[in-house]
Structures are given as C-alpha cells and as structure tokens.
Amino acid sequence: MKRLSVVGLVAGMLLASNPPALAAQPGAGVAVFILAALATTQQASVTAFEALSPAHQKIARALYEAQKATAATRSRLTLDQIAARRQSGQGWGEIFYTMRSHGLVREKSVSQVVSSYERDAKSGHAASPHQAALTNR
Q1: How confident is the model over 62-96, as pLDDT tens digits?
Q2: How far apart are CA 84 and CA 89, in angstroms?
Q3: CB within 10 Å: which end of the chain, N or C, has fewer?
C-alpha cells in the first residue's frame, strides 16, 4: 500500500517536472493517473483502527470492550471512533476520561482498562478480534 502511494507520488512528480518528455510517451499520463487512483483507493480502504500500530490497537480494543451499554449511555463508541480520536491528536488518557465522563467506562485509569482486557483475554472472556470487527461495523 505504501509502495503504491510512493509510486503514484513519484510518477506525479515526474509528470509535473518534465511534461514535454512524458508527452512524447504515448499513454504515460494515463499510467500516472491510474497509479495515483490506485494509491488513493488503497489508502481510503484502511480504517482508522487498522491504521493504528498493534500496541495502539490493543488499547483501543480494550477501551472498546470496557464500554458498558446502559439506558443512560445508549450509544457505544466504535473501534474506528476511538481510533479516530487517537489519530486526531488526543492521548489515551484524554480519550479515556471523555468516555468515563459520559458513563461509558467505569475503571479509574487506562491501565486498569488494559489490565482487565488482558486478564479477560487470557481467561477467554474477551471477544475475539473477528467478533469485535463484526460488532464494529
């Protein structure tokens, strides 16, 4: 995916820097356009959650699993919503405290959330990644 982005960027730079030479090459402009379109399509298909590192995915999943659905808190955040907050520059503590202030989580800290998630995963009570992905959609 990153390779396609780089290839599209390089091809675009070549096209912009030397148009007469590339104009002599039949179909060169079309090839650059197709590469750029492929790179954009590939990037658009990655969700906010998938773009996180594995360590950050673990924290996001722990926060997601820790949410309590009650009458007062009807809507839970999705994995992508949690990840998007992280990508927008919010720290995990800030995300946690916002969720806590809305009654979505009851733990006292992010580390408690992650510890509970790890404990549940070891005992088999946590949702599998496949189940969580289906719930997220």
Answers
A1: 999 999 755 455 688 999 999 999 999 999 999 99
A2: 9
A3: C
Put simply, whether the predicted model's pTM sits higher than 0.85 gets the answer no
- DSSP assignment string, 27-73: THHHHHHHHHHHHHHHHHTS-HHHHS-HHHHHHHHHHHHH----SS-
Phi-psi region of 128 (alpha: psi -120 to 50; beta: other; left: phi over 0): beta
15 vs 125, higher pLDDT: 125
* 8 A C-beta contact, residue 67 and residue 99: yes
> DSSP 3-state assignment of 101?
helix
In percent, how much of the chain has pLDDT > 90? 45
Which residue, chain included where needed, has tokens 């673990």? 58
